[in-house]
Amino acid sequence: MQMRRVLVVGALLAAVLPLAAVPQADAAPRHRERVVPCSRGLVALTFDDGPSVTVTPRLVRLLQRERVPATFFMIGQHVDAHPEVARMVARAGFAIGNHTWAHEDLTTRTPKQIRTSIRATHQALLRAGIAPTSFARPPYGAMDDQVRRVLVGIGYTPVLWTIDPRDWAGASTPLIETRVLGAVRRHRTNVVLQHDGVTNSPATLRAMSTEIRTLRRRGFCFAGLDAAGQPTPPVPVASVRPDERRVAEGGRVGLTVRLDRPTSRPTTVRLTAEGRLSTDVVRFRVGETSARVSLRLPQDDADLHAARSSVGVSGGTGIQPSAPVRLHVVDDDPAPVVSLGDAEVDASPLLPTQVDVPVRLDRTTDHDVEVVGHSSLGRVETVVPAGSQEAVLVFTVPVGTPRDEVQEVRVRVPGAAPATVVVRPPAQTRAEAVRSALATVRWPVVTLPSLF
Fold first, then answer.
1. Is 307 found in the same domain as 162?
2. CA-derived radius of gyration, the chain
């Protein structure tokens, strides 16, 4: 009986202990619990031993599609063999670190050999047209004080990891997923090591979608690495989108202020606009990506047919500003009112005479205003330039005689009160005017030389 009890207890322990030995995953939220994006911390994905012509391009496309940052630690020999793949990774916006020339255990190398391996890899990246980061990852995580001193001495930041699903050792896709998801912890440093350049990398590639989807659902944010090699909060791009692009002068328009991705820290967005904003500083809590504000456009008295206004992000904290948005302002002001001024002129007995009739607008406008005047002296056109309020209509008065009577010529412009041009006859006849003109001429004195 005693033996039977021992066997029963042993069986229970055998069933329980394996479960206790497995690290408990950061549990997924209950079905009805709403998890704020990025509220539970950061996860930095890193990939070693590439580039691979078969896995790396597919992995890059997946990460781009999911908008997940990552750091690729590349082996110099692989970069030399496939520089085009390394370039593709860099051009896709991913960070690239140094993983030695031939995946050596640096703790077995002399300082000179360590420097040679790291520098050879750096040169391979430069030949591939890549500007690498200053990150270096010792293969196998093998780093003692000497390795650290040498790396730091040549300007590199050593970067290790906190989570290793051992995908390089032949683990299946479900096992890789389980190990990663079970090791990520809230508000801890989560740097995941996986591989894109080993035999088992296709299994890692297949695990990525589940890893990304599940961790996001649990409230984690994916992050790049800062200068110290630690996960750094995403820096979203802030933009403004109006409800409509055509807005009446003095009208109100709603604006959506949007971050292109959530982040794990509070952020602020500072707005600038031509008009009055309901607020010029928008504050986002962790995980929030959208807010609403309103803008009332200014009202003026100018007739502006091509008015434009703009609203945009001028700065803030924890964000990148985007380009401002242009609004078309529909002007509701009436066209400017034209008024004319009276004029007087004495007719000439010799030549036609010009007389200026003043034209004035009651307000400026952003375009030229054409004014056409009609009178018995003929039809005349003028233009009031954009931004100005004044011009003249120039009429031509014909030659007159002293026998003519004083004339009052009416000048009319559509929409304006008529003006009067008083034309007085000349005081002299044509002959008298000629004699007067000649009398004023100072003839030169010509002295002829003596011929004899």
1. no
2. 42
- With helix as H, strand as E and coil as C, how does 64-83 read? HHHCCCCEEEECHHHHHHCH
> Would you say 103 and 137 are in contact if contact means Cβ atoms under 8 Å apart?
no
pLDDT of residue 445: 77
Question: pTM (2 decimals)?
Answer: 0.68
Q: Which structural domain, as residue segments, surrounds residue 255?
A: 237-330
> What's the structural domain count of the chain?
3
Beta strands in 162-296 (DSSP E): 191-195, 221-222, 224-225, 231-232, 237-242, 246-248, 252-259, 267-273, 276-277, 281-284, 290-296
Q: What is the CATH number of the domain that holds 209?
A: 3.20.20.370
DSSP 4-32: HHHHHHHHHHHHHHHHHHSPPP-PPPPTT
Token pair 């990525």 in the structure block, residue = 208
DSSP bridge pairs for 194: 47
363 three-state secondary structure: coil
Confidence of residue 336 (pLDDT cuts 50, 70, 90): confident
Which residues are annotated as catalytic? 48, 195
pLDDT digits 0-9 by tens, 104-157: 999 999 999 999 999 999 999 999 999 999 999 999 999 999 999 999 999 999
Give the per-residue pLDDT at 435: 85
pLDDT of amino acid 364: 83
**Most confident by average pLDDT, 30-34, 49-53, 274-278:** 49-53
Q: Are residues 345 and 300 in the same domain?
A: no
In this structure, the answer to whether residues 142 and 265 fall within a common structural domain is no
Other C-beta atoms closer than 10 Å to the C-beta of 415 total 10
Question: Which residue has tokens 């004195």?
Answer: 445
Instruction: Find how far residue 159's CA is from the centre of its chain.
Output: 32
DSSP secondary structure of 210-230 = HHHHHHHHTT-EE-EE-TTSS
- 22 in a domain, yes or no? no
Residue 8 belongs to some domain of the structure: no
